[in-house]
Amino acid sequence: MIVLGIETSCDETGVAIYDSEQGLLADCLYSQIEIHAKYGGVIPELASRDHILKTLPLIHEVVAKAGIQLSDIGGIAYTAGPGLIGALLVGASIGRSLGMALDVPTLGVHHMEGHLLAPMLEAEPPQFPFVALLVSGGHTQLVEVEGIGRYQLLGESLDDAAGEAFDKVGKMLGLPYPGGPNVAKLAQQGTPEKFKFPRPMTNRPGLDFSFSGLKTFVRNTIAEYRDENDELDEQIRADIARGFEEAVVATLTIKCRRALQQTGLRTLIIAGGVSANIELRKGLEAMVAKDLEKRDSKGKLFYAQAKYCTDNGAMIAYAGCQRLMAGQKDDLEIRAQPRWSLESLPAI
Ligand code: KG4
Ligand code: ZN
Question: Which segments of the protein form a coiled coil according to its record (predicted)?
């Protein structure tokens, strides 16, 4: 089955063509970063308007790139939530209308399921069951995954998501939006362990997260080191970025280790924008090797290539294809849900 995937939940218009026989045929992405950068964050109305302009031309582009005709498409998957309601409605309306015009089934896909399944696009995909750490701009969740739609939430952030904390710290450090990759870049110049920021909620049991205290700690540290002209020394700035990144990586690593121990599982996958972070990958890789060595068993860490960690159409096309092939499809109502629990999804 050839599936067109459409992602418009936030500030990226992503479209892709996934073929159940041949894999990913093509994907195209348009990022709105420039539009939102001058405001320091995503402006929902501007996001929706731009998705309206970009989605159809991108669909034509991806169809041409895949070397297929519109009539070859056997199903359409679009992100139906969670996300910005106006932005979601653009993808949902275009997906549903095109589905009706082509007379093919359509399906609203859960954005975080898309992220969770993105490592399946790699040449060596993980096997179920596994523990998934979902770390994006809107979510930080640990999920026990037995199969598609068989998700049990083990823990989540009680306040800011990991990516959100990266973005806010980026802003505090005067870095352009989005903060995550820029904080990571600046952190490379920082002195390791110069600042030891708190590892929130790691000294008590449980798998929930909280990043808002860490963010405040960083804000106070920045204030403390500002000189009389309100300037921050360049090296101190990099050291703070490094200390923050170290704290996030250590916190996520401790919780992932706990989740693997609690579930007895050996495979860990990471997905979502923050899973593109190199230090996080390194930290988790080392933990998985060491922890499983103790358990005398083989384990492994999986993640998608960087362009499929952040928002993209390929993950939506893949997730949609699995569900459409299982016979799932939309009913008559057009639904877009800004909030949507991963656990409420049906299994296939
Ligand atoms: O998954 P995603 O593209 O969108 C959401 O679903 O939210 O994630 C975006 C988030 C942003 O907060 C961004 O700053 C963060 O992922 N991010 C990173 C890195 N690349 C993207 N955070 C840390 N290090 C990175 N290399
Ligand atoms: Zn996302």
Answer: 215-242
